[in-house]
Design a protein that fits this description.
The chain is mainly beta. It has helices spanning about 1-20, 35-45, 135-140, 260, 265-270, and strands at about 50-60, 65-75, 85-90, 95-100, 105-110, 115-120, 150-160, 165-170, 180-185, 195-200, 205-215, 220-230, 235-245. It is about 15% helix and about 40% strand. Strands 6-5-4-3-2-1-13-12-11-10-9-8-7 form a 13-stranded antiparallel sheet.
Length: about 290
């Protein structure tokens, strides 16, 4: 009899704990809010018609040590989908280049002075030992602004402190359930991305990407720190920290050429041009 009562008490306590661990129920979104428009607004925190950025991509292992720190610059053009990325550090990776001319992506390896074509399927693979993918680096992360969007509602207790209200979107590539989905939290005020959870075809959590250190840049609320974690390695963190981002700067179309890709990147690493311009391929930055 005593054992039965004890089991009932434990079962009740378990139910209470399980209930408290569940996310709060979503509220209905205000009328007239379009999911696609929200997704595009969220993407604008990372990309203009043309965008230049400089950032450091790092990996922190469970022991608390930073084992990878990759400094890079990137140029992107929204209308054409073209993008160019140059690794500046560390020494072993410096000069590595990525040139995206849809539908192709080319990679330059300075050590072997070789160029190879990267298959489109590899855009979703981890890059240089971190958990960020090439797709995250060459465009707005987590498919914001590009995947099909559906508004699920409003989360009344999102954010790191659980006090921020946020729209919750479901993003799917082409609407295909078999390819998994992304659940995105966007602030009510400006649709600033707060968090994106990537889920697989079985709806199991694959990774969680959180955004913070929001700063005002050219009238946009831009998260300058992106932290990616995976449930299978919760103490391992991949992080992107923006050192600089410019929206719609002037830069030459010559950036998006294979001749630019074949440059070693040494001159570029020496210092950024004031307007994010590169000289003609083969020349040094102004």
């Amino acid at each position: 009899m005593l054992l039965s009562r004890l089991l009932l008490v434990l079962a009740a306590a378990f139910c209470v704990c399980a209930a408290s661990a569940q996310p709060p129920a979503l509220e209905s979104a205000p009328p007239g809010i379009e999911a696609a428009a929200l997704s595009r607004r969220a993407a604008e925190a990372f990309a203009g018609q043309r965008t230049y950025l400089e950032a450091v991509l790092s990996l922190r292992e469970p022991e608390g040590e930073t084992s990878v720190a990759i400094r890079f610059r990137a140029w992107r053009e929204r209308s054409s989908g073209r993008s160019f990325l140059r690794v500046l550090a560390p020494e072993g990776q410096a000069g590595t280049g990525l040139l995206r001319l849809p539908p192709n992506l080319w990679r330059y390896a300075p050590r072997s002075a070789s160029v190879d074509l990267v298959e489109s399927a590899r855009l979703g693979e981890p890059w240089l030992g971190t958990d960020f993918t090439l797709a995250d680096l060459l465009g707005p992360p987590a498919g914001l602004g590009s995947m099909q969007a559906r508004l699920l509602g409003v989360d009344p207790a999102s954010g790191a402190d659980g006090m921020q209200r946020a729209y919750v979107l479901e993003l799917r590539p082409g609407g295909a359930a078999a390819e998994g989905r992304v659940i995105a939290w966007l602030s009510l005020e400006r649709a600033t991305p707060l968090r994106c959870d990537r889920r697989g075809a079985d709806d199991a959590l694959v990774s969680s990407l959180r955004f913070d250190d929001v700063r005002e840049v050219a009238g946009r609320a831009v998260p300058h720190r992106w932290t990616l974690t995976r449930p299978d390695a919760p103490k391992r963190e991949s992080r992107i920290e923006l050192h600089e981002i410019r929206f719609d700067p002037a830069f030459d179309d010559a950036i998006f050429t294979t001749r630019q890709l074949l440059q070693s990147g040494g001159a570029l690493a020496a210092g950024a041009a004031a307007d994010a311009r590169l000289g003609a391929p083969g020349g040094s930055p102004p």
